[in-house]
Predict the 3D structure of the following.
Amino acid sequence: MLVSVIVPNHGRIITTLVDSIKKSTYKDVELLVIDRGYERSEQRNMGIAEAKGELFLILDSDQSVHPKLIEECVSLCQMGYGSVYIPEIIVAKSFFGKVRAYEREFYTGTAVDVPRFVKKRLCPKFDTELRGPEDSDWGNRILGPRVTSSYPLYHHDDIGFIEYFRKKAYYSKSMKRYVERNPTDKILDWKWRCFGVFFEKGKWKKVLQHPILFACVMGIILIRGIVYLWNR
């Protein structure tokens, strides 16, 4: 089965991503890098329209994959799953990056997460009027059973503190449309989104293991909330 790896780009050097695809144990892959000056959603839709594969892997240009990830995802889809959540490991050297990497561990396979590997026939187009929450909106429209892979993808993103919240401010401007389209989404339950997701299904043990990191995550969530309220 041909896997189409769809990557929107804006002039970024993507050697790490390309090398990871070349090292994949699954070789029936086409790599579509769309770099045409449009926003991420538009370029993803172009890739979806042009892709020849029966299966899609939607990546960002600052990501790469574990050598065995694509092979595992193909196997899971052959077993009957329609899409696959993939654990994401944020690769960063700064302390802020390490806090974000720790936070991301709690989200795998939850409503905060988004499947990145999907069967073509189940793959919707992205909403081009959303900037930031388009991933969650897209994920909500994927039909069929889901599963989580054991192998991860890597997110090479050591963004600084100020730039991180500047991006969140930009994304928050789309939240009104997102809420209108997804009024029952679990991530809109602030109690679950801010607290519940960190303690459910035994994840409270991870909180106790790293109390300082968790306190920093709570600080980030507080600032994100203020940014959202300010820009909504």
Observations:
- DSSP finds ten helices and nine strands in the chain.
- Residues 3-231 form a domain with the Spore Coat Polysaccharide Biosynthesis Protein SpsA; Chain A fold (CATH 3.90.550).
